[in-house]
């Protein structure tokens, strides 16, 4: 792991060859190699600055959502299932310690501009940007004991999210609380508990104190990636998981960006490359905490550089808990199974009364669920060397997994026109927007038969605990065969006696 040492900025007055240490032997060339695309961009003067920062994107940066009721002609919503990422949070302990050291980096930048005059002629910080950065200081109230805590912005995100869904589906979410109709669950972390708390306050106002929620220590539904030995051994500790991301950091595109950023800040000597990530993290955290305010450290980057950094995060997440990880379905299937089984009971007439489910989890679980369902899947996998070809990629964590990201499935009971009886349909919503191009369904409204066709096998083969315990695939196949047998048996029973 690279550890950033702030004051290794051995500036010299001459324009000698200076290099940046990647920590793995890789090096950039001279900082003074001409870069034709380095412009005189001024962040503070940009009326539409770049606001997409991967998993640290503010939910408020997404397209504003309408607050009207969602109506499907001829159908009534009968069940609501949701999985929600926690809202905007503070950094974790190690990141707080690194970001605090940016105070020293800022002091060096001020010296570069005011004493050393080492800034570039082309592409230097404009006066407004320099002034914004010069005035920045670390917020001393952000201490290690508050690491990863939900911010006020995060609380507001979840509270308002619940209110908007309550407006969209009043038939289900405008009902008084009772434990049979509503099911809530969150992981054993303060940020998911506080997100749940804000959500129920948005739903039930002053009656939120009546609400009961579930939380489990060894949570295989909402935090399997943290509680799973098999995942830890085969994914977290597997160097192949981060291979593409590490290759991206060594690519010419990334090297050129890092060279330009450090030159823009006036540095002419060796500097640990991890400072680029720290600057980027401070830029995006500040923007998430105060959506309507400029973020001082964002002045270090142009729009094209921010897009490149965004792709780097997408790439890392793609191979960690996305489509690039062949094991992902083993931990993502649990939530899909939960949704499917609850809807299936209602469709089959065996409903236990549950009308609303709201689960509160983390970024990794959200991405695992997307990957299991087939949401935001690209035809061509993300690679370290195809950034330019992936400008229109579906897997953009800024859009699918910002703070307070949410995936909702709604089960509808619909009239069959002139035919007797009713049919059931399902619509999926990602961050409050209907997923219209999904499973080949018309405007995103899927027949239950289509949902069965696409997910029944995933659900029946899903055994997160067995995977995490390292049980043989043969055992899982036997279990799946038994489930299939009983499903056929129950179908025959219903056809004969119902």
Write a concise keyword list for the protein shown above.
disordered C terminus, seven-stranded mixed β-sheet, disordered N terminus, single chain, alpha/beta, 17 helices, 498 residues
Summarize this entry quickly.
Helix content is 42%, strand content 9%. The chain is α/β, with parallel strands linked by helices.
Textual characterization of the structure:
Helix 11 (303-321) packs across helix 13 (363-373). Strands 1, 2, 3, 4, 5, 6 and 7 form a 7-stranded mixed sheet that branches. The chain has 498 residues and is α/β, with parallel strands linked by helices. The relative contact order is 0.17. A hairpin with a 2-residue loop joins strand 5 and strand 6. Helices cover 42% and strands 9% of the residues. The chain has 17 helices and 7 strands.
């Amino acid at each position: 792991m690279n550890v950033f040492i702030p004051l290794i900025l051995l500036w010299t007055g001459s324009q000698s060859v200076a290099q940046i240490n990647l920590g793995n032997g890789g090096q950039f060339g001279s900082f003074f190699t001409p870069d034709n695309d380095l412009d005189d961009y001024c962040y503070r003067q940009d009326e539409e600055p770049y606001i997409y920062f991967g998993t640290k994107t503010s939910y408020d940066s997404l397209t504003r959502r309408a607050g009207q009721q969602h109506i499907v002609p001829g159908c009534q919503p009968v069940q609501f299932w949701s999985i929600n990422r926690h809202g905007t949070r503070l950094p974790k302990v190690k990141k707080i310690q690194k970001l605090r050291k940016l105070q020293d980096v800022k002091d060096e930048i001020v010296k570069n501009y005011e004493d050393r005059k080492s800034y570039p002629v082309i592409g230097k910080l404009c006066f407004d940007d320099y002034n914004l950065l010069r005035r920045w200081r670390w917020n001393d109230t952000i201490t290690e004991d508050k690491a990863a805590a939900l911010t006020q912005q995060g609380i507001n995100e979840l509270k308002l999210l619940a209110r908007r869904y309550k407006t969209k589906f009043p038939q289900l979410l405008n009902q008084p609380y009772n434990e049979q109709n509503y099911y809530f669950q969150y992981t054993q972390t303060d940020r998911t508990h506080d997100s749940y708390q804000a959500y129920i306050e948005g739903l039930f106002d002053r009656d939120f104190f009546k609400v009961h929620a579930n939380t489990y220590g060894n949570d295989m539904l909402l935090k399997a990636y943290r509680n799973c030995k098999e995942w830890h051994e085969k994914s977290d500790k597997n160097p192949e998981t981060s291979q593409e991301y590490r290759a991206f950091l060594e690519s010419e595109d990334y090297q050129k960006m890092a060279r330009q950023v450090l030159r823009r800040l006036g540095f002419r000597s060796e500097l640990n490359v991890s400072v680029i990530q720290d600057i980027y993290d401070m830029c995006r955290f500040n923007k998430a905490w105060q959506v309507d305010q400029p973020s001082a450290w964002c002045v270090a980057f142009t729009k094209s550089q921010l897009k490149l950094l965004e792709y780097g995060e997408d790439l890392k997440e793609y191979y960690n808990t996305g489509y690039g990880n062949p094991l992902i379905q083993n931990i993502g299937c649990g939530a899909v199974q939960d949704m499917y089984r609850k809807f299936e009971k209602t469709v089959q007439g065996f409903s236990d009364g549950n009308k609303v489910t709201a689960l509160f989890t983390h970024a990794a679980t959200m991405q695992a669920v997307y990957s299991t369902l087939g949401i935001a899947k690209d035809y061509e996998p993300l690679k370290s060397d195809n950034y330019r070809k992936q400008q229109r990629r579906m897997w953009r964590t800024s859009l699918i997994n910002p703070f307070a990201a949410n995936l909702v499935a709604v089960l509808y009971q619909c009239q069959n026109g002139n035919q007797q009886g009713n049919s059931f349909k399902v619509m999926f919503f990602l961050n409050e927007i209907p997923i219209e191009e999904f499973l080949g369904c018309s405007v995103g409204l899927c027949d239950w038969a289509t949902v069965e066709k696409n997910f029944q096998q995933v659900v029946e083969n899903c055994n997160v605990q067995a995977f995490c315990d390292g049980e043989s695939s043969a055992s899982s196949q036997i279990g799946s065969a038994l489930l299939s047998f009983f499903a056929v048996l129950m179908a025959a029973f219903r056809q004969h006696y119902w």
